[in-house]
Write a structure and sequence with these properties.
The protein is built from 18 helices and 8 strands. The chain is of the alpha/beta class and about 375 residues long. α13 crosses α15. It starts with about 30 loop residues before the first helix and ends with a helix. The chain binds adenosine-5'-diphosphate (ADP). Adenosine-5'-diphosphate binds next to α5, α13 and α15. Keywords: ATP-binding, Hydrolase, Nucleotide-binding. Belongs to the AAA ATPase family. This is Fidgetin-like protein 1.
Length: about 375
């Protein structure tokens, strides 16, 4: 999926650079730029923090597993891919009861108790979540990491492979540069090395189809290299059973993943659009942060009328509705009104909004459903 509404994942402590803050090029092309790649506190913890600052070029990774990985790549992984967002619980994910139950049993428990879940009971190393966009695949990934007390790494595969990442997509500039200069496969290697150091780890790869599609084979040398490296790492994670790394792939286009890659994701789960009850839970969760005036019947009415909406569509609807009371004011009023005088979100406001088309069309949905047959859901 490509939506990231309500993600607080970029909210971090002082050690993390935001997406909009000063960009440090990962691939410096001049000597002095090389020096400007400074180490932050987190990176120092990996490298061993005892050295005086300013002696970057003499710093050597102290962890064996980071040997041969470029420091700037490690820093990029830690700054842009490692997710320091808030902890999540299963209640944050509305509906999807089947997926949640299955995931708890086959993934989370084994990750929490590797001593019990050995051999035949061993946890899967790969999990594929597929289905329409905006249905909670990313939320599930975060939740798995939280609940299994694992470090969460999250990256969109398109940022590694695509030269032309559109505006408005989840794009990380630094990674974009990596893709542009054809160093995506180094990034993949660094990602798994850092994950190994920080295990137990969950590595979430959104839009995994762009990494593993049949097309990426012949097309560009660069994307072929990234794909090969990814498969090598995936197989490494699967065979080194003492490593506790779960790779989760998410995709809206399961049919584009080739057979060889598909086989590596032993467990596959379809993540469908939310039912009416789940839509209700999403709305209630979001509205609970605001003042609102809505009877249970009115809420049910809205939830019936939004059949076909994804979770992300529901979140958008709530966001729009929350602006309703503000839009009815003129500028003078906005300037002077006190926060508790802002009118509540009402049924009337919500009723004006649900006529918008759902982001997933019926035609798309057919594709997922035939995709489901094609994929064979394995749990
Ligand atoms: P995906 O990864 O499937 O494209 P996300 O997990 O990024 O979708 O969901 C996007 C946003 O939509 C979430 O941040 C959340 O606000 C809302 N959302 C989608 N599905 C759910 C769900 N099942 N429960 C709660 N919120 C959801």
């Amino acid at each position: 999926g490509s939506s990231s509404y309500g993600n607080a994942k970029k909210s971090l402590g002082s050690t993390r650079r935001g997406l909009n803050s000063k960009f440090i090029p990962p691939i410096p092309n001049r000597e002095e730029e090389q020096d400007s790649v400074t180490m932050n506190a987190v990176t120092k913890s990996v490298f061993g923090g005892g050295k005086p600052s300013g002696s970057n070029n003499s710093e050597e990774p102290t962890d064996e597993r980071l040997k041969g990985i470029e420091p700037k790549m490690i820093e990029l992984v830690m700054n842009e891919i490692m997710d320091y967002g808030p902890q999540m619980t299963w209640d944050d994910v509305a509906g999807l009861e089947f997926a949640k139950k299955t995931i708890k049993e086959i993934v989370v428990w084994p990750m929490l108790r590797p001593d019990i879940f050995t051999g035949l009971r061993g946890p899967p190393k790969g999990l594929l979540l597929f289905g329409p966009p905006g249905t909670g695949k990313t939320l599930i990934g975060k939740c798995i990491a939280s609940q299994s007390k694992s470090t969460f790494f999250s990256i969109s595969a398109s940022s590694l492979t695509s030269k032309w990442v559109g505006e408005g997509e989840k794009m990380v500039r630094a990674l974009f540069t990596v893709a542009r200069v054809g160093e995506g496969e180094k990034m993949v290697r660094a990602l798994f090395a850092v994950a190994r150091v920080h295990q137990p780890a969950v590595v979430f790869i959104d839009e995994i189809d762009s990494l593993l599609s049949q097309r990426s084979d012949g097309e560009h040398e660069a994307s072929r290299k990234i794909k090969t490296e990814f498969l090598v790492q995936l197989d490494g994670a699967a065979t080194l059973s003492e490593d506790r790394i779960l790779v989760i792939g998410a995709t809206n286009r399961p049919q584009e993943i080739d057979e060889a890659a598909r086989r590596r994701f032993v467990k596959r789960l379809y993540i469908p659009l939310p039912e009416s009850a789940a839509r209700k839970q999403i709305v209630l969760n979001l509205l609970s942060q605001q003042k609102y005036h809505l009877s249970d019947q009115e809420l049910d009415f809205i939830c019936q009328k939004t059949d076909g909406y994804s979770g992300a569509d529901m979140a958008n609807l709530c966001r729009e509705a929350a602006l309703g009371p503000i839009r009815s004011m003129d500028f003078g009023e906005i300037e002077s009104i006190s926060a508790d005088q802002v009118r509540p979100i009402t049924f009337r406001i919500l009723k004006m909004l649900y006529h918008k088309k759902a982001s997933v069309s019926n035609k798309d949905l057919d594709l997922y459903i035939s995709g489901t047959i094609h994929m064979v859901v394995l749990v």
